[in-house]
Design brief:
Elements lengths: L1 H15 L8 H22 L5 H36 L10 E8 L4 E3 L2 E12 L6 E7 L24 E11 L11 H7 L4 E14 L5 H20 L5 H9 L7 H10 L2 H4 L3 H21 L7 H4 L2 H19 L4 H18 L6 H15 L7 H16 L11
Parallel strand pairs: 4-6
Antiparallel strand pairs: 1-3, 1-5, 2-3, 3-4, 5-6
């Protein structure tokens, strides 16, 4: 129980950074140290360990201390990363001016009739000081704005593939979002992705290099690009071709707004998105096939199951399949949650350890937030973990009569 409380304290403290009106690292650290020192001092003076009651009190004090320490670590680490991300911004003197930059394509390109949009990593720039991650809009001709008549003419663009390095001229702007109440927080959405500026292409960019294996993210996005290109040759013109893309690789950009409205009204939106159900189904099928194969095949007159138990091999293969499919699906938060839970269960199985549902869920949430503190801002985080929490809790309701209020 103590470990779960500590992990939950880390998550809550990391989430509390998101609502701060201003970042002040020194004041927060001083306050936490003062509170922690006070709690420990009072406990050492008031509860000398000579009775069972006082021993239990010291255990409660130790739990409170560890929770404070965990929250301090979560708060300060998130605060430090948020401060570093805020400092990586476009200076006012470079805004709305043309800058010469060299960028690496880092994401699957979003395709429209008259433009392309993708995330780029800035490798060099003139002038210097451009934020590292930029959202690039490439339009052919002059962009007339979001309220202009839509251009139905198909324009030829070069094939933009993740891993390519382009030299281009960009008109850079700081990220600005609308301040309408209860509206979509566009600025916060891009901030959570690490994008601190946007740029519109000017002139004709030049392809100067291609690095398909630069990083795991670039390689996985490149695979997604080729899968999408292969599928589009077969689903072009199909009524629900965009839905097939969304189901296969998590590319929802082509799904039309009327279709989303239909999915929302019928309650099947989660079926169109890559969810834990899809990942678990694929991993389970792969693990089951390997399990049956491993039990029946022999090598050098000796069964494979005698060399290594089939259950262990099936667990490892299922985790690897889940990981590969999550990368193909874009590594969204529901996919991360599913992979982590499967990996934790498989690890516990291999080490002959028992793990409860609450430990499994909190540990997965802790890992997600530790690697990406801004994941907690996404609706997918709350929907995914809340849905799994309800499902795991409802296991105890099986066999009990329902009571209607």
């Amino acid at each position: 129980m103590r470990g779960r409380l500590c992990l939950l304290s880390f998550i809550v403290a990391s989430a509390s950074v998101q609502i701060l009106p201003k970042l002040s690292l020194g004041v927060v650290i001083a306050g936490y140290l003062a509170v922690t020192t006070t709690v420990v001092g009072i406990g050492l003076v008031a509860f000398p360990a000579n009775t069972t009651l006082r021993f239990n009190s010291r255990r409660l004090l130790l739990t409170a201390f560890l929770m404070l320490l965990s929250s301090l670590i979560g708060f300060t680490s998130t605060l430090y990363r948020a401060d570093a991300r805020l400092n990586d911004q476009l200076s006012a003197r470079d805004e709305n001016k043309v800058s010469r930059v060299t960028v690496r394509v880092n994401s699957l390109v979003r395709i429209s009739d008259n433009g392309r949009r993708f995330e780029g990593e800035v490798l060099s720039s003139q002038p210097e000081g451009i934020p590292k991650h930029v959202l690039i809009n490439w339009y052919q001709g002059r962009y007339a704005g979001p309220y202009a008549a839509r251009n139905t003419q198909t324009i030829e663009f070069p094939d933009i593939i993740p891993g390519q390095i382009w030299s281009m001229a960009l008109t850079l702007k700081q990220v600005h979002g609308l301040r309408n109440p209860h509206g979509f927080d566009y600025e916060g959405h891009l901030f959570a992705q690490g994008i601190r500026t946007t740029g519109n292409v000017r002139g004709q960019p030049q392809l100067i290099d291609d690095q398909p294996f630069h990083s795991l993210r670039v390689f996985s996005e490149r695979v997604r690009h080729h899968v999408r290109a292969s599928m589009q040759t077969h689903i072009e013109g199909m009524r629900y071709g965009a839905v097939l893309l969304a189901l296969a690789i998590g590319d929802q950009a082509s799904v039309e707004a009327p279709d989303w409205r239909t999915f929302n009204l019928t309650g099947i939106t989660h079926l169109v998105s890559i969810s834990g159900t899809h990942v678990t189904l694929i991993a389970s099928l792969g693990g089951l096939l390997v399990y049956r194969f491993w039990r029946r095949w022999q090598w050098r007159n000796k069964g494979l199951a005698e060399r290594c138990p089939a259950q262990i091999v099936a667990c490892l293969v299922a985790v690897i399949i889940a990981w590969c499919y999550c990368l193909l699906a874009g590594w969204g938060i529901p996919a991360q949650r599913t992979f982590l839970m499967l990996a934790i269960v498989a690890g516990a199985r291999l080490m002959r350890l028992s793990i409860t549902a609450s430990r499994l869920l909190i540990l997965a949430a802790f890992i997600v937030v530790a690697f990406d503190p801004w994941a907690i801002l996404a609706s997918g985080f709350w929907l995914s973990f809340s849905a799994v929490c309800i499902l795991l809790t409802s296991v105890g309701w099986w066999g009990q009569p329902s009571q209607l209020l």
